[in-house]
Amino acid sequence: MNNILENRTWRYATKKFDSTKKVSDKDLELLLEATRLSSSSYGLQPYHVFIITDQAIKEKLKPVSWGQSQITDASHLIIFANQTNFGGELVDDYLNNLSKVRNVPLENLKGYSDFAKSKIVDLPEEVKTNWTAKQVYIALGNLMQAAAELKIDTCPMEGFEPEKYNEILGLIEKGLNASVALPIGYRSDEDETQHYAKVRKSKEELFTYI
Question: Mean pLDDT across the stretch 17-35?
Fold first, then answer.
């Protein structure tokens, strides 16, 4: 089987992690770099990623995560937090970085700056929040696939109370909102769901050629 498909077949939403196994620093850095390199609309990456290793914080988050054991048993808990509101500084910060990395005079980027700002700066706050939350999932998918290639287990989770996460992690004052949680680590031998056959729509149901 092609490695791409093999890795996707191997991975599943891990329900029980082996709390004695930890992701190495080297592998964690690979996962984070894969996340950093993810694409995003306009290249803006309107989110921040928190890597939780503090067991005490995990314990605080578990009750507001529907009591799910993945929160405390996983090696690391990755929290993706999308920006809830922003102005032109989001574009300015990106273009300042682009100017340095590509050695392009900032004034040469004014056209792109004006275009990007015209599309996103004046959007209603709710629309901005929905847009930035969508950007999170692009990075999430890249992290999950990189983890599968390293045979590191993951479990994407929306089953938590975002407002409580925001409070515990101090996100509100940072203009952020907890969008999705991703425990990473290694599956427990006791997790029976690892043996379940994948249930997906057939190709005929899912795909239409036009």
Answer: 98
